[in-house]
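Morning F.,

Quick status update on the modeling queue. The single chain you submitted on Monday has been processed. Sequence for confirmation:
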Amino acid sequence: MKSITVYDIAKEANVSVATVSRVLNNTAPVKKETRDRINQLIAKHQFQPNALARSLFKKATGMLGIILPDITNPFFPEVLSGFDKEARRRGYTYFLCDTVSSNEDSVDQYTRETQYLGVLLEKQVDGIIMLGGRIDLARPQPDLVQDVLEAGKRVPLVLINGNLPGTRIHRVMADERLGASLATQHLIDLGHTDIALIGGYLGMTNTVQRKQGFLKTMKDNGLAVNPDWLLHGGFTVEKGRLFTEQLLRQPVRPTAIVCMNDLVAIGALKAANQAGVRIPDELSITGYDDIPFSVNSIPELTTVSLKAEELGHTAALMLHRVISKEKTPLTVTLKPELKVRGTTASRPLRT
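Structure tokens below.
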């Protein structure tokens, strides 16, 4: 069977090859009746454009790369969902690169990020999105920064949250300090004065910024912070459980806990339940991220939404504009939103 080409489609539709190309690539307006006729012929012949030939002609592949640290963390699929919808709407497909390391894996996360940057450049992607990993480090090593800068010289790059100090790379970010401040102020407005902060890693910018938001809000309200109630060292459910157990063993307990993410908050809920502490009557808990699990916990979790899907959508749109050489701001900042649900209530009376 003869292979159908763009020339065959153009001849049968009685239009120029350029008109067929405009319909295929959606690069310029075409009359509806002409567009419909061409699309009918494309469907009739099950015509598939030669992607390699098209990439050589346009000097573009229509492919993007997205590098993230752990697809099993529910926050990242939410970001990916927004990215996917906008990327597909703009005509892109993409390579998904997950840098998480298993227990049997000797390759660390940052080495894998570097490997993936190389692979994506070899695949001649039109642009790369990065989130998590090295861009979340408060003080990344110079070689980690240099790897990204070298990639950025060859293709457009967009970072989601995080940052690389001393660089000018396009990025979309949520206001992490504001998010923590919203959660803390909510608890203070409910009458809480004894508030703990748990989770996160102090070497990561998201933890540093959220902690800054918490401390400033406490200070602005004239409240003291108990250093024994500042517990860091992880973003997992298990860490949330362990940190909360530690707090509940102390002679004076906090009446509220601000958690660095929703997984930590779920661990805190678990520890409180196992200790017979009623939520929110005896202890209020807030999360951070607004992952889907937050509305399925019992009680439903009060949390800070970072608008994960909007982050992904905005990053894809920004990357497309940079690729298209459109004027694009270097940084776009999204405002988080507090979602008040069932894990927070007025401060309990001390007995």
